[in-house]
Specification:
The complex is a heterodimer of chains A (about 200) and B (about 280).
Chain A (H helix, E strand, L loop, with lengths): L1 E3 L2 E3 L1 E6 L3 H10 L9 E5 L8 H9 L3 E4 L10 E4 L5 E5 L3 E5 L11 H12 L3 E5 L8 H9 L3 E5 L8 H9 L4 E3 L4 H9 L4
Parallel strand pairs in A: 3-4, 3-9, 4-6, 5-6, 9-10, 10-11
Antiparallel strand pairs in A: 1-2, 7-8
Helix pairs in contact in A: 3-4, 4-5
Chain B lengths: L2 H20 L8 H13 L6 H8 L3 H12 L9 H15 L5 E6 L5 H12 L6 E7 L2 H9 L1 E3 L3 H10 L10 E4 L2 E4 L7 E5 L11 E5 L9 H14 E8 L15 E3 L6 E4 L5
The chains are: A alpha/beta (about 200), B alpha/beta (about 280).
């Protein structure tokens, strides 16, 4: 729990689709190992993917990256990727939960499912980030984060490899920050209250 | 209090009522999924809140059945996680072949896709007539559906791909007949499967199983219920029997974990140890 202009954030949720691997490399790669709050990521991957992406990102990033296990407790300084073919959700009490409920927005994992359940648990203490991607997954979720008092960050569509996902989010809600991809890590670091 | 917090209270109250009236126990289901499923049900129900629906749900069995369906229906695929079925074929079947008769409990079989997958695998391994699969689910309606073995034709492409990746030795199209937009599984597959209603939350164990399959069912349960179910599985398995969990589940830090050994890291296939010498 860290302060930022009186606001304390408890978690970051990130949704990304097409173009996600290089975007995640850049964003997660710039977060420090002692990033003070957990980061939860949904990226659209094919149903039979293994945890290769998490392992790759873990080797490239200072911060720990892993694929979420069922009912895993979240710890600060860790990034949790939703496993292929499962929705990832947040439970009260700070654990992750997985489900094989039907696809949402043609996706499992779905960004909306993560964002909505995280918003229900964290309310105003949540930062939601939508980055490059096709489709509109995450728009409703980010809107829910906003309505629960949380903060919405959207990658500038002009900067995104695929602009549909950020554009769709911006049509549905008023983002707190519309930024370039490279500006996302310093923003998160500032909001999470990492000491310089 | 936020409306989400109020919803949580309504869920608790409703689940207590459902347990006392109908005997279905969802009080230890994990909250995030339950909340999503109940919210979905509510949005199609015509009621504004769960509290308003509760009075009707506790009095009207037919209405409750729609809720039950909304809470419990799980979706699966034939040969979901092909690597798992491949591991069964390559690393478990050789042990199973040494038994004269193999009893399998498929707990939480939903509409039967994985039970039929297991039947196909065992038939291809030459075990015809030597196994029985007890496929159970809490939802009786889903059990009837599972028994029919009819699936949307559009799923077959995915099922076929899974089957091939799972090391299938035949041609998947031999196992079903296409009728209009449905695929009907060949009745032979059903010969060795017994479908039955069973609640992991309230019912007792099954005796002397050689293999228990329960994948992506306990992810919907809280810790306490999970421990109960694992206890059921432990007492239902013969020594040397196999317990198969979903890809992201494990026995780590569970009270029965020292009775079991994972056959190979990260397969989520565990073997029950023989009693200590």
């Amino acid at each position: 729990m860290q302060k930022n202009n009186g606001r304390k954030f408890k978690a970051v949720v990130i949704g990304v689709s097409t173009g996600g691997v290089s975007a995640l490399k850049l964003v997660l790669g710039a977060l420090p190992a002692d990033f003070p709050i957990p980061v939860l990521v949904v990226t659209h991957i094919t149903p039979d993917s293994d945890d290769g992406l998490a392992i790759l990102l873990d080797t490239l990033c200072a911060i720990r990256v892993k694929e979420a296990d069922d009912q895993e407790p979240m710890i600060p300084g860790s990034v949790y990727l939703a496993p292929a073919n499962y929705h990832m959700m947040v439970e009260r009490g700070g654990t992750l939960a997985l489900s094989i409920d039907p696809l949402v927005n043609f996706a499992r994992p779905s960004v909306d499912v993560l964002f909505e359940t995280a918003a229900e648990v964290y309310g105003p203490a949540l930062i939601g980030v939508i980055m490059t991607g096709a489709g509109n997954d995450g728009s409703k979720g980010l809107s829910k984060i906003k309505s629960c008092g949380g903060m919405a960050i959207v990658q500038d569509p002009a900067d995104a490899e695929m602009d549909a996902m950020p554009r769709s989010a911006l049509q549905l809600l008023k983002a707190d920050h519309i930024v370039l991809l490279v500006e996302i890590p310093p923003l998160l670091i500032r909001l999470a209250g990492v000491k310089p | 209090m936020t409306s989400d917090e109020l919803t949580d209270i309504e869920i608790k109250l409703l689940m207590e009522g459902v347990f006392q009236v109908y005997g279905h126990d969802f009080r230890d289901y994990s909250e995030a999924s339950l909340r999503r499923r109940l919210t979905n049900w509510l949005s199609g129900s015509g009621f504004a809140t769960l509290s308003l629906a509760q009075s009707h749900l506790l009095r009207d069995r037919a209405l409750f059945d729609t809720l039950l369906r909304g809470i419990t229906v799980n979706v699966s695929e034939m040969f979901r996680d092909p690597a798992f079925f491949k591991a069964i074929r390559e690393q478990v079947v050789p042990y199973l072949k040494t038994y004269p008769f193999i009893k399998i409990w498929h707990a939480g079989c939903a509409s039967g896709e994985e039970a039929y997958s297991m039947a196909i695998l065992l038939l291809e391994e030459g075990l015809r007539g030597r196994f029985r699969i007890y496929a159970t689910d809490i939802n009786e309606e889903v059990i009837r559906k599972a028994h029919e073995g009819i699936y949307p034709l559009q799923e077959m492409q995915n099922f076929t791909r899974n089957y091939q990746h799972a090391g299938g030795t035949g041609s998947f199209s031999d196992y079903y007949t296409a009728r209009y937009d449905h695929a009907i599984l060949t009745p032979m597959l059903r010969e060795n499967i017994v479908f039955a209603a069973h609640s992991l939350a309230v019912d007792a164990d099954f005796g002397e199983m050689n293999l228990i399959l329960c994948r992506n069912v306990m992810i919907y349960f809280k810790k306490q219920l999970k421990e109960r179910v694992l206890g059921l599985f432990d007492s239902s398995l013969s020594p040397g029997g196999f317990l198969c969990l979903g890809t992201k589940e494990s026995l780590d830090h569970r009270h029965i974990s020292n009775h079991f050994e994972e056959i190979k890291p990260r397969t989520q296939i565990y073997r029950k140890r023989y009693a200590k010498k």
